[in-house]
Amino acid sequence: MRKKNCFVAAIFLFLSVAVFPQGQEKYALYYYGVVTNVNDQNMLNMTQDLFAAQIRGISYVTLHDMRADGVKALYADVSTDADGSEFFSLVAEVSPVTENAILFYARFFRPRSDEKWECTFFAKNAQTDVVASRTKSYDSYYKILSDSKQLIQSVVAEASGRSSEPESLQGGALAARPSALNAENISGTWSGESDISRIILMRSGRGFIVFANGATMNISISLSGEGGSRKLRVVQQDKFNASYYPDIDRGKILSYAENAAPIEWNLVMMPNGDLEGTKKTLVASVDGIEPSDVKVVWKKSVR
In the 8-state DSSP scheme, what is residue 223? Predict the structure, then answer.
């Protein structure tokens, strides 16, 4: 019996090493959201949801959403140049976590006048006490969102002791994308239209579009159909904005402010992972301005 027990123990030890080799174990990631002086709750919710979606995409962590546990309220008066350790000390007092855990939060502040936005991501390994951080300056708030994925992957990787190379680039190439639409493969940053800088789609069914002229548009996202015939519908949620029609004279497009329907995209995913379809919008014509279905192709950014 003793030999049998030793044999069973050895098998379990072998399996634990094979499944979770050193440096590859699964971590519980405790996500505390964003510390900021921004008072716009819709903006803050969108930011925190996007960061959470990007964390869920990291294969070796399991997200634990701790946004409502009260730590941030205790941390409200922190100075902009604090190193992050004070926040993690408060976490230990308010909400104890497991040993095999990573603690994570982000911090940014609305700048004064012509200053840049500065965003910092912090991650702490609860077992080793290693604290990693990444800080970057941005010309606008929306650039924080469109540029956050790689920074989040990098700071979590450093805290966990893994390679700091973004997961999407490990192995040399991005894995093939399936042609059936789902919340996973549409989530991320897209581009493709000449007048649009970035398109951010989130698994929460929301997102936003950053135009080349600096305008931003909040959008809703929905899927319909089954299997390979699934379709993606993206619809403008904000009120009319002349900046959403950069190819049309501003004076002319403003006359449509009361009657213009929301801009809408209807797309399908191609075998190569691109999104193709039509955009229902207004275009300039010989007779003035008229509704039209414009063909579009969106390509996912490799990040």
Answer: E
For residue 90, give the amino acid letter: L
Q: Is the pLDDT of residue 9 over 70?
A: no
CA angle 141, 144, 148 (to 5 degrees): 165
DSSP states of 287-298 as a string?
Answer: TEEEEEEEEEEE
Order across the sheet with 61-65: list the strands.
61-65, 27-36, 101-109, 117-125, 131-138
CA nearest to 25, candidates 82, 75, 96, 99 = 99
* Neighbouring residues of 297: CB distance < 8 A, sequence distance ≥ 6: 192, 274, 275, 276
Residue 20's pLDDT is what? 40
What is the gyration radius of the CA atoms in the chain, in angstroms? 23
Write the DSSP assignment of 127-156 as a string of letters. TT--EEEEEEEESSHHHHHHTHHHHHHHHH
131-138 vs 188-191, strand pairing mode: unpaired
Nearest partner of 107 among 128, 134, 131, judged by Cα: 134
pTM to 2 decimal places: 0.58
- H or E stretch at 107: strand 101-109
